[in-house]
Design a protein that fits this description.
2 domains; Rossmann fold; alpha/beta; 9 helices; 9 strands; 36% helix; 3-stranded antiparallel β-sheet; 6-stranded parallel β-sheet
Length: 277
């Protein structure tokens, strides 16, 4: 039976009673199949599975969707129960930030200024701050994050190494709808027409990944995006697996961010340059 707790004291008591390897999945709620896949992977890697549900205000900009971000805790706990999660920690804002908005936060560095960081100033500082706090509060041995938020995963991995936080950070491949759309809690904002337009993102990434030359990768993906007027592209980028400059050959990552209506979506795929997929 999944136990739901809301306070640090309750979390500490439940954590103290846990035995074996503790695996954590950190979420902002509105759980979908992608989150459930993270829970399944957590079960493979941990004896005690803990899910956090917290809509973190620090990672939302002033014109972003913090107030309308879906809060579905009852349904989230049901999903966790179905996946055999042992504990759900769902603090409120005052419990997570008892002194109010923190005056000291983590700096994301140069990696936090590109791609999502360029479009959403301060986002990664807020994200890293809450992840670091949750790693300390949960004392997890392993933490699992989805590859859909690839830059987030890269920054958490770097933070864990640089600050010697001691957890194992595991990336889990993106879970997609049958038609290819990357699963996201924000997909529920899309109308039927917008959802059709949103498929352009995954279509563009697939077409780009079929190419073996960096220039052709970007050209193929950009053409698909340009043909869909319902998609406003923020960026399309080809990088190495650590989000550095794209190599001429070898492993790479193709990333895209765009608005469909008022909903901002991101997606990415791995590819191998120099070899046709």
């Amino acid at each position: 039976m999944t136990v739901l707790v809301h306070t640090r004291a309750e979390l500490a008591a439940a954590r103290a009673a846990a035995s074996g390897r503790v695996a954590v999945v950190m979420t902002m709620g509105a759980l979908h199949e992608g989150h459930r896949q993270l829970m399944r992977e957590a079960r493979k890697r941990g004896d005690f599975v803990l899910v956090t549900v917290f809509v973190n205000p620090l990672q939302f900009g002033p014109n972003e969707d913090f107030d309308k971000y879906p809060r579905t805790l009852a349904a989230d706990v049901e999903a966790c129960t179905a996946e055999g999660v042992d504990l759900v920690f769902a603090p409120d804002r005052d419990e997570m930030y008892p002194g109010g908005t923190p005056s000291v936060t983590l700096e994301a560095g140069a990696l936090g200024t590109i791609l999502e960081g360029a479009s959403r100033p301060g986002h990664f500082s807020g994200m890293l701050t809450v992840v670091a706090k949750l790693l300390r509060l949960t004392r997890a041995d392993v933490a699992l994050f989805g590859e859909k938020d690839f830059q987030q995963l890269a920054l958490i991995t770097r933070m864990n190494i640089d600050l010697e936080l001691g957890a194992e950070i595991v990336g889990v491949p993106t879970v997609r709808e049958p038609d290819g759309l990357a699963m996201s809690s924000r997909n529920r904002y899309l109308s039927a027409e917008q959802r059709t337009a949103a498929l352009t993102l995954s279509h563009a990434l697939r077409e780009g990944a079929l190419q073996d030359d960096p220039t052709r990768v970007l050209e193929a993906a950009q053409k698909i995006l340009d043909d869909e007027p319902g998609v406003q592209v923020d960026y399309l980028a080809l990088t190495d697996p650590l989000l550095g400059p794209a190599p001429a050959t070898g492993p790479a990552r193709l990333l895209v961010a765009a608005k469909v209506g008022t909903t901002r979506l991101i997606d990415n795929v791995p590819l191998h340059l120099g070899e046709v997929a």
